[in-house]
Write the structure tokens for this entry.
Amino acid sequence: MKEYEYKVSAAGRINLIGEHIDYCGGKVMPAAISLKNTVYIRPNGTNYINLSWTTLPDKVSLDIDKLESYKGLKYGNYQAGAALMWQRAGHKIIGCDMLQDCTVPFGSGLSSSAAIEVSTIAALATIAGEPLNKVDIALKAQQAEREYAGVNCGIMDQYASACGKKDGVMLLDCNTLKCEYLPLRLGDYSIVIANCNKPHSLIESKYNERREETDEALRILKQKLNISCLAELRESQYKAYYSSLSQTVRKRVEHVVSECERVRVATLALKAGNMEMLGGLLNKSHASLKDNYEVTGREPDALVEAAQSQSCCIGSRLIGGGFGGCTISLVKSNCVDEFKEFTYNTYLKATGYKAEFYDSDVSDGIIIEKL
Ligand code: GLA
């Protein structure tokens, strides 16, 4: 890649616990991983961003003065959206060639879109000689996901993709954006990432629907309680005002309140190195995503059940937006191969889909290299 000037990458992410609470102002525990989107970039002296991919035959040229017109693109829309939000924030966009190399599987719940958006902005800022403010990049990338890609997401994915640190799990307060990095000491256990490989099409609309339900809950509860986000709701308060919510919205709130509490306990478990406790919380998180938040589905449930049925696995749950994608499991390190084999076979028998496993370490978020 000698002819390019910079190699700029941003990470995919896993999320230990704290699912579907980032947009409720909750604390979440993501970690950036070594699956990432890498952008090789060089200025080209034109008014275009020319995109190409290592893994796709497509070539796309984005006119810097018409960045709002590429929403319908199958590939290149995330880059266009990210560049547009950066431009709208007052940054100069320089015409350039960008070769994209994405190792985060698309639509897997490992935040390929955040990795693309964050690396695109970081690359544009780098060739413009701008100092990097990672939090600001994450916020503009989130805006691209919301306003350009149409997913009304929280900040977790873009923040983790930009600000992740090698060997650190993040304890990110999505209300204040304060972030603590905790060492990921798993003792005798390893995290296994498995993709259920079920294509999911309804994710955007279902995701936005959940957001609306939690917004509705907040609107109603705010009339009676002094809270600014659902994550501030205590269980006792919630129980007192239960009846003002519809049955469905109650279940959503129950998930949010209980998941916030699980994150609190998981932080203690991780700090104390109590993996069994952490594993139990992962299982409970999955059950709540399934029964209360209703964002799992036949295939993710089957994958999690196959994992949880094994004694070497102390916890397993679906991660990310839901309705498909990846699970994480806490597995005794000396049993990982057998675990994968049993999970693969059991899941295949139950669903007809072939699970895929990814080897990935915890990694830095944005990484910039001059070539
Ligand atoms: C998606 C969103 C995040 C978060 C998760 C669920 O990944 O982009 O903001 O809401 O779903 O925890």
